[in-house]
Design a protein that fits this description.
Layout lengths: L5 E5 H14 L4 E5 L1 H5 L3 H7 L5 E4 L2 H10 L5 E3 L6 H10 L2 E4 L2 H9 L8 E4 L14 H9 L8 E4 L12 H10 L9 E2 L3 H6 L7 E2 L25 E13 L4 E2 L5 E2 L4 E6 L16 E4 L2 E6 L7 E4 L11 E5 L5 H7 L4 H6 L6 E5 L5
Parallel strand pairs: 1-18, 2-3, 2-9, 3-4, 4-5, 5-6, 6-7, 7-8
Antiparallel strand pairs: 1-10, 10-13, 10-17, 11-12, 13-16, 14-15, 14-17, 15-16
């Protein structure tokens, strides 16, 4: 029995979720967002599974360089663009497509000789308040970019939702209206829809959609899980039971003695802790899954272990697999118990966890 915590990555689930995104916006091209190591799932593993995407998107240059080595011809979008001339020169050499969001970047584009047919995404801030030029500047900046010979006809428009995780928030409609009203040529390709936009705002699909969290089987909406939306979890985080201890009534468990048994019981010790990325501040009674049954966590999560109350009527044994989240136990449920979001939990799985790619051929 290995004590190493493992993250099982389902290729079949990835492809299923990808297909749902395609079906939701059948007339749009798909820019698969695989930044932050594919939301903690392994960037190259995910890219290999989603080769039918029209393009990949990552956050920064280091990610793009690794991806370009694997996929010499694939369109790769750099969501944060470039910060200086050296980075821009690397982008050009690797045929990467930057997102342009500031006048400083535009000046750099004008200052060097760009490759023929170089393309950019111009980001407009329609309400996020983070990156992007103002809507009133769009036409002027658009014309300035198209005045660069190598960019003529190669400038696309992009913006980003701020509140799409709440389907009842009218500010999303305001952003869509703002994006529609941009004074740019009607032939310009556009992208606005993230996962939430894909699933709830079909009027935001335009020529390109940008699925992110939905690809990994997670709901982009508050108070819903991916399962509610027909998505399948891609990552299943698991550990093994390394001990089962008999605990007497009033005996305490874990650091700080913060949990006390109210009756005689049995406690399973699981080889997974915050050193693996499981949240330390998880609420007591958060469930884990053993033999398809939920059992509650008790006491504090430590670096390498956590404890689960089995009660006295069970068939659990040392060596049994424990699911911390994933198939049968939505990561959204665990994130809520941790006072966090699924994005954060997935991205915080640490390097000591053993990642195992699974598909229908290999179980």
């Amino acid at each position: 029995m290995s004590r190493v915590c493992k993250a099982c990555i389902s290729v079949d689930a990835l492809k299923h979720n990808f297909s749902l995104a395609r079906e939701a916006a059948a007339g749009s091209k798909l820019l698969a967002v695989i930044k932050a190591n594919a939301y903690g799932h392994g960037m190259l593993t995910v890219a290999d599974a989603l080769q039918n995407a029209d393009a990949f998107a990552v956050a920064h240059l280091e990610e793009a360089q690794v991806l370009r080595e694997r996929y010499p011809q694939k369109s790769i979008v750099l969501l944060q663009g470039f910060v200086d001339e050296k980075e821009l020169e690397i982008l050009c050499a690797l045929s990467l497509t930057p997102v342009v969001h500031s006048m400083y970047q535009i000046a750099l584009l004008e200052s060097i000789r760009l490759p023929d047919n170089f393309a950019v995404w111009l980001k407009v801030d329609t309400g996020m308040g983070r990156l992007g030029i103002g809507p009133d500047e769009c036409r002027r900046v658009w014309e300035r970019l198209n005045h660069i010979p190598q960019l003529q006809g190669q400038v696309r428009l992009m913006s980003h939702f701020a509140n799409a995780d709440n389907p009842g928030d009218t500010r999303t409609d305001v952003q869509i209206d703002c994006f529609n009203a941009l004074a740019a040529p009607s032939f310009a390709e556009r992208s606005l829809a993230n996962s939430a936009g894909i699933m709830a705002w079909p009027q935001s699909h335009y020529q390109w959609i940008r699925p992110g969290i939905m690809l990994y089987g997670v709901s982009p909406f508050k108070e819903k899980t991916g399962l509610d939306l027909g998505l399948k979890p891609v990552m299943t985080l698991q550990g093994n039971i390394i001990a089962i201890n008999a605990i007497k009534k009033n005996q305490t468990v874990g650091y700080g003695s913060c949990w006390q048994a109210d009756e005689d019981t049995q406690i399973a010790v699981v080889a997974c802790g915050y050193g693996d990325g499981y949240p330390r501040h998880i609420a007591e009674q958060t469930p884990v899954l053993i033999q398809r049954k939920r059992y509650p966590i008790v006491g504090r999560v430590s670096m390498d272990m956590l404890c689960v109350n089995l009660g006295n009527a069970h068939s659990v044994q040392v060596g049994d697999t424990v699911t911390l989240w994933g198939e049968g136990l939505p990561v959204e449920t665990i994130a809520e118990q941790a006072g966090s979001i699924a994005y954060e939990l997935l991205c915080q799985v640490t390097s000591r966890v053993n990642f195992i790619k699974q598909n229908s051929e290999h179980g």
